[in-house]
Write a structure and sequence with these properties.
Blueprint lengths: L5 E4 L8 H20 L3 H15 L15 H4 L4 H7 L1 H14 L6 H10 L3 E5 L4 H11 L8 E5 L28 E5 L8 H10 L7 E5 L2 H11 L2 E5 L7 H9 L5 H11 L7 E3 L5 H15 L11 E3 L1
Parallel strand pairs: 1-2, 1-5, 2-3, 3-4, 5-6, 6-7, 7-8
Helix pairs in contact: 1-5, 1-10
Length: about 300
C-alpha cells in the first residue's frame, strides 16, 4: 500500500531553467538582427510579439522570416532565401543556447534513480511538442529518462513552405524521440486543466494516490494536482531567475490580453502546496515520505497529504 508508481513532471523551470536559457539566446539573436538590419530593437521586439501571438508560442522557429518590419525589404525572397539571409542571427541564438541550456543540478541522477526504482516518469508541459522533444532529445540528451510526454500540438511549417525549404526539417530522423508515449494535446488543453492529468493517470493505469506531480507553478502544476487528488510537489527553485530575463520575455510574449486575464484570475486563487522542494534531487525523499505515511494509514489511492514537507 502507498506505493508511488508515477511521477508527472513539468519541464520548463522544473527540469531546466527556461527563463535564464531562452531570454539570453533571444537577446543574442536580437542584437545580431539590429546589427544586420539597422532596425530599432524595440520595433523588432514588438514585431516578434505579433508573430508569437499569431502562432501561440514564444518559440516559433520561423519568427524572423515573418517579421512585419522586414516585410518590404524581403518581400521578393523565398522562405529558404530569408532563412539563409538571417542565418547569422539564428546562429547567434544557437551559440548562446550551448552556454545557457542546462538541466538543474541533480536532475539526471534523480531521474535515473526514480527510473531504476521502477517508477514511470511522464513530462507534461505547455511548450509545443516539437520544442519539448528537441530539447529533451537533441539538446539535453535525457529523453531516454522519460516514459511519456504530453504537450500541445505543433504549429507546423509556415504557410506555403515545403520541407526542402527548411534545413532543420530535411532529416526527420534527427527529431525522432526515444520517449515511447507521446501525446499531442488539442487547442485549449493547457494547465491547470485537470483533464490532461486525468488522461495521464488513465493511460498509465495509475490511481491518483499512486502519483506525484512536480512543477514550479503553484497556480498550474500544484493546483492541477490537488484538483485531481494527486500528491503535489512545488519545485520552488524554479521561481529563481533573472528578472531582466523575465522582463524581456514579457516584451515578446505570445500571451494575448485574454491570456493575461486568465493568468491574473489564476493568480488570485490561493494555492498552498503539500510539499515543497528547493532542488530536484530532493524529490525521492519526498516520495519516500509520502509512501511511509500512506503505508501507515493503509492508503493506496487517496490524496491530500496531511503534513507539508520542505526539502532542498
Amino acid at each position: 500500500m502507498g506505493r508511488i508508481k508515477l511521477i508527472v513532471t513539468d519541464l520548463d523551470n522544473t527540469i531546466y531553467n527556461w527563463v535564464d536559457y531562452y531570454a539570453p539566446c533571444f537577446q543574442a539573436m536580437l542584437h545580431k538582427l539590429v546589427e544586420m538590419t539597422g532596425i530599432d530593437e524595440q520595433a523588432l521586439k514588438a514585431s516578434f510579439k505579433r508573430v508569437h501571438q499569431r502562432h501561440h508560442t514564444s518559440e516559433y522557429a520561423f519568427a524572423i522570416e515573418e517579421l512585419d518590419v522586414l516585410g518590404d525589404r524581403d518581400r521578393e525572397l523565398t522562405l529558404a532565401q530569408r532563412l539563409a539571409k538571417y542565418y547569422p542571427a539564428i546562429q547567434a541564438f544557437r551559440d548562446k543556447r550551448d552556454e545557457t541550456l542546462k538541466v538543474y543540478p541533480g536532475v539526471v541522477d534523480t531521474l535515473k534513480l526514480l527510473q531504476a526504482e521502477g517508477r514511470l516518469i511522464v513530462a507534461y508541459t505547455d511548450a509545443m511538442m516539437f520544442y519539448a522533444i528537441y530539447r529533451l532529445q537533441r539538446q539535453l540528451g535525457i529523453a531516454h529518462l522519460f516514459d511519456g510526454l504530453f504537450a500541445p500540438k505543433d504549429h507546423g511549417l509556415p504557410a506555403g513552405a515545403v520541407e526542402s525549404d527548411v534545413r532543420s526539417y530535411q532529416d526527420p530522423s534527427k527529431y525522432r524521440c526515444a520517449i515511447r508515449m507521446q501525446r499531442e494535446l488539442g487547442p485549449g488543453l493547457l494547465k491547470p486543466d485537470s483533464r490532461v492529468l486525468e488522461l495521464i493517470l488513465a493511460e498509465c493505469a495509475v490511481a491518483p494516490g499512486e502519483a506525484v506531480c512536480v512543477g514550479d507553478s503553484l497556480h498550474k502544476d500544484v493546483y492541477m494536482a490537488q484538483a485531481c487528488g494527486v500528491h503535489d510537489v512545488h519545485a520552488a527553485y524554479g521561481r529563481e531567475y533573472d528578472q531582466a530575463n523575465y522582463r524581456l520575455l514579457i516584451d515578446i510574449t505570445h500571451w494575448t490580453d485574454q491570456d493575461v486575464d486568465r493568468e491574473t484570475r489564476l493568480a488570485a486563487v490561493q494555492v498552498i502546496p503539500n510539499h515543497v522542494i528547493y532542488a530536484f534531487s530532493a524529490l525521492p525523499e519526498i516520495i519516500q515520505e509520502i509512501e511511509r505515511r500512506d503505508s501507515l494509514r493503509g492508503i493506496g489511492s487517496s490524496r491530500a497529504p496531511e503534513t507539508r514537507g520542505r526539502l532542498g
